[in-house]
Amino acid sequence: MRYQYTQQEKENIVSNFMKNDKVTKVPAKEKKKYILLAEFITRFEQGKIYTEKEINAELLKVYPTGEYVEQRRYLITFNFFKRSSDGNQYWLNI
Protein backbone atom coordinates (compact mmCIF):
# COMPACT_ATOMS: atom_id res chain seq x y z
CA MET A 1 0.00 0.00 0.00
CA ARG A 2 1.47 3.28 -1.13
CA TYR A 3 -0.63 5.46 1.18
CA GLN A 4 -2.07 4.76 4.60
CA TYR A 5 -5.58 6.03 5.26
CA THR A 6 -8.45 5.44 7.62
CA GLN A 7 -11.90 4.16 6.75
CA GLN A 8 -13.27 7.59 7.68
CA GLU A 9 -10.81 9.32 5.34
CA LYS A 10 -11.80 6.94 2.52
CA GLU A 11 -15.51 7.58 3.11
CA ASN A 12 -14.96 11.35 3.08
CA ILE A 13 -13.02 11.25 -0.19
CA VAL A 14 -15.50 8.92 -1.87
CA SER A 15 -18.44 11.09 -0.80
CA ASN A 16 -16.68 14.30 -1.89
CA PHE A 17 -15.56 13.07 -5.31
CA MET A 18 -18.15 10.45 -6.30
CA LYS A 19 -21.88 10.56 -6.93
CA ASN A 20 -23.90 7.52 -8.10
CA ASP A 21 -20.71 5.43 -8.37
CA LYS A 22 -19.10 7.95 -10.76
CA VAL A 23 -16.20 10.29 -10.14
CA THR A 24 -17.53 13.82 -10.53
CA LYS A 25 -14.15 15.50 -10.31
CA VAL A 26 -10.69 13.95 -10.23
CA PRO A 27 -8.82 15.21 -7.17
CA ALA A 28 -5.51 17.02 -7.61
CA LYS A 29 -3.80 15.31 -4.69
CA GLU A 30 -2.21 11.97 -5.46
CA LYS A 31 -3.33 10.34 -2.21
CA LYS A 32 -6.97 11.08 -3.03
CA LYS A 33 -6.51 9.67 -6.53
CA TYR A 34 -5.02 6.58 -4.93
CA ILE A 35 -8.01 6.13 -2.62
CA LEU A 36 -10.49 6.47 -5.50
CA LEU A 37 -8.55 3.97 -7.61
CA ALA A 38 -8.34 1.57 -4.65
CA GLU A 39 -12.14 1.68 -4.62
CA PHE A 40 -12.28 1.29 -8.42
CA ILE A 41 -10.18 -1.88 -8.58
CA THR A 42 -12.76 -3.80 -6.57
CA ARG A 43 -14.51 -4.27 -9.95
CA PHE A 44 -11.80 -6.66 -11.11
CA GLU A 45 -11.04 -10.32 -10.39
CA GLN A 46 -7.71 -11.55 -9.04
CA GLY A 47 -5.95 -13.85 -11.51
CA LYS A 48 -7.92 -12.71 -14.54
CA ILE A 49 -6.14 -11.15 -17.54
CA TYR A 50 -7.73 -8.00 -18.93
CA THR A 51 -7.15 -6.19 -22.20
CA GLU A 52 -6.45 -2.49 -22.34
CA LYS A 53 -9.84 -2.09 -23.99
CA GLU A 54 -11.55 -3.78 -21.01
CA ILE A 55 -9.68 -1.57 -18.54
CA ASN A 56 -10.64 1.53 -20.53
CA ALA A 57 -14.30 0.46 -20.67
CA GLU A 58 -14.44 0.11 -16.88
CA LEU A 59 -12.62 3.40 -16.35
CA LEU A 60 -15.08 5.17 -18.66
CA LYS A 61 -17.97 3.88 -16.54
CA VAL A 62 -16.52 5.66 -13.50
CA TYR A 63 -14.27 8.54 -14.60
CA PRO A 64 -14.94 11.60 -16.78
CA THR A 65 -14.13 10.86 -20.44
CA GLY A 66 -10.98 12.98 -20.59
CA GLU A 67 -9.49 11.33 -17.50
CA TYR A 68 -9.46 7.62 -18.23
CA VAL A 69 -5.98 7.48 -19.84
CA GLU A 70 -4.34 9.25 -16.90
CA GLN A 71 -6.17 7.02 -14.44
CA ARG A 72 -5.07 3.90 -16.33
CA ARG A 73 -1.48 5.09 -15.94
CA TYR A 74 -2.03 5.60 -12.23
CA LEU A 75 -3.29 2.02 -11.95
CA ILE A 76 0.22 0.96 -13.02
CA THR A 77 2.08 3.69 -11.10
CA PHE A 78 0.28 2.77 -7.88
CA ASN A 79 0.97 -0.93 -8.55
CA PHE A 80 -2.71 -1.85 -8.53
CA PHE A 81 -2.15 -3.53 -11.90
CA LYS A 82 0.77 -5.01 -13.78
CA ARG A 83 0.81 -5.09 -17.56
CA SER A 84 2.62 -6.96 -20.28
CA SER A 85 5.54 -5.21 -22.00
CA ASP A 86 3.42 -4.61 -25.10
CA GLY A 87 0.62 -3.09 -22.97
CA ASN A 88 -2.01 -5.52 -24.24
CA GLN A 89 -2.60 -7.47 -21.02
CA TYR A 90 -3.34 -6.22 -17.52
CA TRP A 91 -3.81 -8.11 -14.27
CA LEU A 92 -4.40 -7.15 -10.64
CA ASN A 93 -1.29 -6.85 -8.52
CA ILE A 94 -2.85 -6.93 -5.05
From TrEMBL:
Query: Residue limits of the DUF2087 domain?
Result: 23-92
Superkingdom assignment: Bacteria
A Pfam match: DUF2087
**Protein name, per record:** DUF2087 domain-containing protein
Biological classification of the source: Bacteria, Bacillati, Bacillota, Bacilli, Lactobacillales
